[in-house]
Amino acid sequence: MATQRLPDGAYAALAGLKAQAGAALIMLPGEDIGAGRKALAAAHAQIAQHEDWAKKIVKALMASKGQITVETADSEWLERAFAEPSI
What we know:
By secondary structure, this protein is mainly alpha-helical. The protein contains 4 helices and no strands. The chain has one domain (9-72). 66% of the residues lie in helices and 0% in strands. The longest helix has 19 residues, at 8-26.
């Protein structure tokens, strides 16, 4: 297992954002709205616990101008986007 280069909250925030996107898809017509609501509530709770990181991640995603989305972002992207510069 690779060593995490960022605080746990960064990875948890990204996971919460990804879960939010997945929950939104469950909320589409013809899907299980109840399950979608539960999944969305769980995702929002996870995001709320790591709100500072979630805001930073969303800002970085928006700055990518669509090159990276919440669905394509992964831990490697997260670490590249927020790694401390080498001296």
